[in-house]
Amino acid sequence: MSGAVGGGGGSSCLGAAAAASCSSAGSPYTAAAGGGAGIAGRLPARVLEHVFSYLEMSDLMRCSLVCWHWNNILADENSEVWRSLCTRSLSDEALRSDILCNLPTYKGKLKAFQHALSSHDCSRNVYVKKNGFTLHRNPIAQSTDGARGKIGFSEGRHAWEIWWEGPLGTVAVIGIATKRAAMQCQGYVALLGSDDQSWGWNLVDNNLLHNGEVNGNFPQCNNAPKYQVGAGVVSACHSYPHQIGERIRVILDMDDKTLAFERGFEFLGVAFRGLPKACLFPAVSAVYGNTEVTMVYLGKPLDG
Question: Is the backbone peptide bond immediately before 219 cis, with ω within 30 degrees of 0?
Fold first, then answer.
């Protein structure tokens, strides 16, 4: 999963290069990685936890490679080390709210923050709120505005949740995009999927979009209901109602090159296949004024 993470503002790609940065042959940490020999392996756990509690995520990820002793101490994702870093890094609002309710560990919450929507890789008409996870679109006429996640993926399996607060408007798209995909355009359009650099699901009309074309309806079931804008949503293949704010899970599999979606406990199916071998970022685009979209990275999806 996630290795050393770059700065909070920009976007980077999580893949082989990121893993190599933590375990390159020239790293001073690899010399002791084979076991617990030396002073590092004999320091008491309580002392190490106290020292680790002052470090940042990138330092802790490197420390986990020093020896088995250090790795075991950092393996507890709810330890004082991760709690301390979590309270330093995340806003009180995010920790008090239910935004991170599906992430039971402090380390998981930190990873979610590091993968959140970027305040520096988005349209000028949107901003990320103080909680660090929610995108707010300003009421700008005749503009479609989007944002990418801070970190993209070139390998592995990844899942994240997205939910809308407030009306969807005429177009509300969730999906993935390369670094080259535009995050703003004139008019009210489905920005994600408007070119060959992005793939999107328009929640308003249930269309799948890529390269400026509609790739069919989604989910692929008979008479799949649409979101009821301003009122609630209806489950894709059932009749029970859901309110705006329901979490949609996005599942990106860079090994199988697929993008799939879930709603609640319902797997909606694979939306896109044959994704390119590229760095792909979580992305959203919106048109409704003052609408808010939240994204929370979950990590590796659970099978079954």
Answer: yes
